[in-house]
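Deliverable D4.2, example record:
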Amino acid sequence: MRIESINVGRVETVRRGSEAMQTGICKRPVKTSVQIGVEGIPGDAIVSTEHHGGPDQAIYAYSGDDYDWWAKSMGFDVFPGLFGENLTIRDMPSDMTIGDRLLIGEVVLEATAPRIPCATFAARMDDAGFGLLFRRAERPGVYFRVLHAGEVRAGDSAMLVPCNEHDVTVLDLFRYKYSLQHNADDLSRLLEAPIAERFRAAIESTLNALS
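Output generated by the structure prediction step:
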């Protein structure tokens, strides 16, 4: 795997109809090296802190191969940072196991969750129906926590270290968010993985509601 682009955003306004939203989703490539810390990339704007950012979702990465799929299958004009990712990574799998690690020089990232599309994402794409397209594509990208901080730059290689302690994947969590029916055993299985705390709280709430 290789880092194709490192993308950083500032606070900007996007519009959906008459509604204006402030967001940090409009990320653009940087040409210099950047420091990745436990809270992400310093200076990268995160506006909706209820849903984004924090130690368990410090870095969002998207696969360059999945961008190729969007361009070929959906006719999108794609470019690094379009989906609001910090890292655009060539050859990154679409579906990773939660707990898989990426080694980028001295930086160690651990997969924690998928991206769930929201109204701001749809506004960014100027398409009210984009959330449904994103759901059906099942190429959500991956959130990571930072286990070891350090400096990275575009062109750096990344190595995948698989997690073999469970079988919960990014797509398992993605599908959970859209499922209308839940099974206690399935939910308990998801909780066995080192998932992001926002997902853990949601799954625990769903599980408690089944009791």
